[in-house]
Model the fold of this input.
Amino acid sequence: MAALTWTLLQAVPLVLIGILLLKILSTLKKIHDLKASFKDFPGPTPHWLYGNMQELTGDFKGMLRVADYAVRYHGAFPVWMGPTDAFLMTVHPATVRSVLSGSDPKDEFSYSLMRPWIGDGLLLSSGKKWDRNRRMMTPAFHQGVLRNYVKIFYESGLELLEKWSKGGDEPVETFHHISLLTLDSMMKCLFGYSSQCQTETVRHPYIQGVYDVSEQIVKRITNPLHHFQFIYDMSQNGAEFRKTCDVIHSHSEKIIRDRRQLIASERPGSRPVDFLDILLSGKDSEGNGLMDTEIRDEVDTFMFEGHDSTASAISWCLYNLARHPDHQDRCREEIRQSWGDRQDITWEDLNKIEYTFMCVKESMRLYPPVPNVSRCAENDITLPDGRVIPKGVRMAVSLFALHRNPEVWSEPEEYDPSRFSRDSVTYQSAYMPFSIGPRNCIGQLFAVTQMKVVIPMLIRKFRFTLDPNRPAEPESMLILRSKNGLYLNIHPVK
Done:
């Protein structure tokens, strides 16, 4: 017995060495396979440990460097995130069109940090479930539904007008205020719930939760150690994140239960149909509706995708108009002639501000609200130039770099709204602030409608100028933010 025990003890180091060798061989094979996948795609030389992550950061310099590499490496190049992991960055219109034209799922690695909050909604689901839910949700964004939201967007805008009218002479961090505005609008549109989040000093737990969870995810992204789940689970931020998700889910579930009871007791047609009504009543081809957990996931997904991305678009547009007062004045005159001081803004009024929306489009070209999107190739993808992206490769699309491609845009760094005039060329697959293809942003018309209401409201009441002491520093953090805040001087128009 003793001899057997001794033999086993002698074997343990050999077993451990064998396991270690297998792990090393597995890692080497993974590196070899990745390099083979990228054999037709030259790119910047990676550091042996950090890969390309020190030069291709999420700050403004890093994003501009991606735009430079887009030209140097013919529209697609590998980006190494370390010695063993990499993805293919795609930044040329033809390449991007090939990557986004299919229904390939999102890259799970890039979005998995949000799964505990938004679950398996449209953003993260794939295959038959994604296709089924996309079809069922599409009616929620029909023009007939969106028409009802114009008044809601306007009412939320009025609260911000009043708040800014009472402000002093100090510069205002606009992104925070506009994020609350878009969150307030979405609560009204999704749930028929008046949150008062723009004015209340103590917020409703759900509103505070939605606001907090976005910040907690950003904190996790900026801390590389917290990308490891077991480390994050033991951290204070991880504990707060789980608690916040529980609060959000609990309240979402209560709202869904309450709405079911309301629908059962009310007279049909007694109020306008909203997003939640459509989620609750929708049926697939087999007559089955969504389960409550699926409805909760879709609501939480749209809250994430909708409120901060729209706030980014509105904030950066105001920033660009502050940088270019001549365009701002021209917008204000167009709005004055089209709307006057009326407060009964209608759906039809939104198409009367053509030049103003050209300015919005040009702002989203330079500062796309979602600067990067990702996919994972379910099958081999053959590009127009004959190169092949192998099955299983993770792919990213830098919309920021795509929108600044000098092969497409003359003087791409210049803010020139005339690019989007009726007489200008059509920028197919070179301009896509809401992505393209089957997995494009389902709520883009919702977002555009809100921009067309809120931005003119703000411009006709206020003049915006830059704060020279706090210049904006664009940074890619899920959405495009300013690293040091987005401060503007806000003066009432006399």
Q: What stands out?
A: The two ends are 97 Å apart (CA to CA). The domain at 37-118+126-492 is CATH 1.10.630.10 (Cytochrome p450). The longest strand covers residues 487-492. The chain has one domain: 37-118+126-492.
